């Protein structure tokens, strides 16, 4: 298959971790006979420095015409003093909006060799494998009016959704559940919020079209507790924007390492933007010690969700797991024993596991 991928390295460690993901994508292309055309564009602080804006038109145009986008990270103290429209983060929000990326997917799956690093008990989190799907372009974060009134003595934020905005994310969740263990947990606050009551109605309507998926409704407060007391009860969780923001950060604790987590922001036609959950880590930028695995795993998500390349995605994930089992780890990972390696060495270890695997498979 031929695919056109836009690379947006951004700031801080962005360049280093995108380079790693490119090496792994090239290895996948070689192993599986694909052609990935990769073009780099500017976003974030790097774009402010070179073009005077965090999101140049050329970047938006390139992304609109691409099959998928892989982003490193944006931001850093260097640009903190700039006016709001020149902040690096504006570039990221702007590109999500320009592309209509309404669904944020965050798989939360711990690697066995890192589970001890979680503050939660290993016997509770072992085996947990959750996909959190968060609505990304509606709700409280986009409500109007959002303002201070009465000389600042009163405030208004609005939680607004169109039925169609709820329907498309709920459909996405059912479809994702079908590709996994076929269990969907819908999270809301239907005992208090009208928006949640409509959300719940739509889930009930939609489930008729997916009789093979079991559905459970959970109030967000209960979901927050169950996530850390019984994470194994979850397969796919779907929820609105703010609940999803909070629950996905909470769930990252299950894995013992925020630096490893990938994410996807996608729309109905499959186009999407993929990025690690962590930030630009300016404190270690340029030192060659950044953990590239969150970005490499984001590239795997890209293959799975935008290109339907399940075997290729699984091969990357397997190679990452094997590297960790072999004890390779970057400085940020709290691993017992093993060998501490650089960004480049970690990447080479992933490529090695990836390519050896398919050689032995084909013998
Ligand atoms: P943002 O606001 O952009 O999310 P943040 O304030 O959450 O940023 P990060 O940039 O994620 O912060 O960094 C938090 C800490 O984690 C820093 O000490 C950073 O060095 C470390 N860190 C983040 N990502 C990585 C990585 N890929 N490899 C190694 N260390 C990392
Ligand atoms: Mg952060």
UniProtKB/TrEMBL annotation:
<keyword id="KW-0460">Magnesium</keyword>
<feature type="binding site">
    <location>
        <begin position="76"/>
        <end position="89"/>
    </location>
    <ligand>
        <name>NAD(+)</name>
    </ligand>
</feature>
<keyword id="KW-0100">Branched-chain amino acid biosynthesis</keyword>
<feature type="site" description="Important for catalysis">
    <location>
        <position position="141"/>
    </location>
</feature>
<dbReference type="InterPro" id="IPR024084">
    <property type="entry name" value="IsoPropMal-DH-like_dom"/>
</dbReference>
<comment type="pathway">
    <text>Amino-acid biosynthesis; L-leucine biosynthesis; L-leucine from 3-methyl-2-oxobutanoate: step 3/4.</text>
</comment>
<dbReference type="InterPro" id="IPR004429">
    <property type="entry name" value="Isopropylmalate_DH"/>
</dbReference>
<keyword id="KW-0432">Leucine biosynthesis</keyword>
<dbReference type="GO" id="GO:0000287">
    <property type="term" value="F:magnesium ion binding"/>
</dbReference>
<feature type="domain" description="Isopropylmalate dehydrogenase-like">
    <location>
        <begin position="4"/>
        <end position="350"/>
    </location>
</feature>
<feature type="binding site">
    <location>
        <position position="134"/>
    </location>
    <ligand>
        <name>substrate</name>
    </ligand>
</feature>
<keyword id="KW-0479">Metal-binding</keyword>
<protein>
    <recommendedName>
        <fullName>3-isopropylmalate dehydrogenase</fullName>
        <ecNumber>1.1.1.85</ecNumber>
    </recommendedName>
</protein>
<feature type="binding site">
    <location>
        <position position="245"/>
    </location>
    <ligand>
        <name>Mg(2+)</name>
    </ligand>
</feature>
<dbReference type="GO" id="GO:0051287">
    <property type="term" value="F:NAD binding"/>
</dbReference>
<dbReference type="Pfam" id="PF00180">
    <property type="entry name" value="Iso_dh"/>
</dbReference>
<dbReference type="InterPro" id="IPR019818">
    <property type="entry name" value="IsoCit/isopropylmalate_DH_CS"/>
</dbReference>
<comment type="subunit">
    <text>Homodimer.</text>
</comment>
<feature type="binding site">
    <location>
        <position position="221"/>
    </location>
    <ligand>
        <name>substrate</name>
    </ligand>
</feature>
<comment type="function">
    <text>Catalyzes the oxidation of 3-carboxy-2-hydroxy-4-methylpentanoate (3-isopropylmalate) to 3-carboxy-4-methyl-2-oxopentanoate. The product decarboxylates to 4-methyl-2 oxopentanoate.</text>
</comment>
<feature type="binding site">
    <location>
        <begin position="279"/>
        <end position="291"/>
    </location>
    <ligand>
        <name>NAD(+)</name>
    </ligand>
</feature>
<dbReference type="GO" id="GO:0003862">
    <property type="term" value="F:3-isopropylmalate dehydrogenase activity"/>
</dbReference>
<keyword id="KW-0464">Manganese</keyword>
<comment type="similarity">
    <text>Belongs to the isocitrate and isopropylmalate dehydrogenases family. LeuB type 1 subfamily.</text>
</comment>
<keyword id="KW-0520">NAD</keyword>
<dbReference type="GO" id="GO:0005829">
    <property type="term" value="C:cytosol"/>
</dbReference>
<feature type="binding site">
    <location>
        <position position="96"/>
    </location>
    <ligand>
        <name>substrate</name>
    </ligand>
</feature>
<feature type="binding site">
    <location>
        <position position="249"/>
    </location>
    <ligand>
        <name>Mg(2+)</name>
    </ligand>
</feature>
<feature type="binding site">
    <location>
        <position position="221"/>
    </location>
    <ligand>
        <name>Mg(2+)</name>
    </ligand>
</feature>
<dbReference type="GO" id="GO:0009098">
    <property type="term" value="P:L-leucine biosynthetic process"/>
</dbReference>
<keyword id="KW-0963">Cytoplasm</keyword>
<keyword id="KW-0560">Oxidoreductase</keyword>
<feature type="site" description="Important for catalysis">
    <location>
        <position position="189"/>
    </location>
</feature>
<keyword id="KW-0028">Amino-acid biosynthesis</keyword>
<feature type="binding site">
    <location>
        <position position="106"/>
    </location>
    <ligand>
        <name>substrate</name>
    </ligand>
</feature>
